[in-house]
TrEMBL record:
GO molecular function term, any single one: prenylcysteine oxidase activity
Protein name as catalogued: Prenylcysteine oxidase
Organism: Schizaphis graminum (Green bug aphid)
Domain Prenylcysteine lyase positions: 1-229
Cofactor(s), by name: FAD
Gene behind the chain: PCYOX1
Length: 241
């Protein structure tokens, strides 16, 4: 199960720090708005945001899920072909609890076994896994727990697992595609000058895979741009002759 191996790397301050540093290094201008519509022009695209602002670009890189249950739907207009949304994303709920494991529920687990990870393969169980959580470069505290589940936990379910609870945080998100067999690969190239990084998620979903998808898209744009420049140069050289 992804994220359950204790030897995995952690980022101090959370994985969001990776994106923040990438944005800082790129010196890109971040517009804190949602794109709700992408309109295709002849050789460009106009983007409309949820604040009704517009901007036109030569190339557009779509770095978000294109799925049936995506949280921020985007309308594509004037496209040469209809864009079919592929499948659904899998809901994962992460619940962080500060408290003690309830001994009446986990009577077979002794203090000698802590820290511990519990994984359930019972489809009728309301949680998928429970594990201790420690901050980066922090040791000693074993009363912070992360629970993965398919649905948000009720107060009764949390009380069934833990006691002396002092805080609860819940993150409910569409974590990765709902895979099926056979899996149909998706294209990075949606239309001329329009690219989709998240197409790679239908092969495998992780931050590292998104980096691979981003590099592929960057190379595709470079190839298209260089080809366009070459065609322009060839055209003008013919005119001069």
């Amino acid at each position: 199960m992804a994220g359950m191996d204790g030897s995995l790397w952690s980022v101090k301050g959370g994985n969001k720090r990776v994106v923040e540093k990438l944005l800082e290094k790129s010196k890109a201008h971040l517009i804190p708005e949602y794109v709700v519509q992408i309109i295709r022009n002849n050789d460009s695209y106009t983007l409309l945001t949820n604040f009704k602002k517009k901007a036109t670009y030569d190339y557009v890189v779509f770095a978000a899920p294109l799925a049936e249950n995506q949280k921020v739907p985007i309308t594509f207009s004037n496209m040469p072909l209809a864009l079919n949304k592929v499948g659904k994303y899998h809901q994962t709920v992460s619940t962080l609890v500060i408290g003690d494991m309830k001994r009446t529920t986990f009577s077979t687990i002794s203090d000698d076994l802590l820290p511990i990870t519990i994984i359930s393969n019972n489809e009728n169980e309301f949680f998928n896994s429970i594990s201790n959580v420690e901050g980066v470069n922090e040791t000693g505290s074993l009363n912070v727990w992360k629970i993965f589940s398919q649905q948000p936990l009720s107060n009764n379910q949390i009380d069934y697992l833990f006691e002396n609870v002092s805080d609860v945080k819940v993150v409910d998100w569409l974590a990765y595609p709902h895979y099926s067999v056979p899996t149909e690969s998706q294209s990075f190239h949606i239309a001329d000058r329009l690219y989709h990084i998240n197409a790679i998620e239908w092969t495998a979903s992780a931050m590292e895979m998104s980096c691979i998808g981003a590099k592929n898209v960057a190379l595709l744009i470079k190839k298209h741009f260089n080809s366009k420049e070459l065609n322009e140069t060839t055209k003008w050289s013919h005119v001069e002759l």
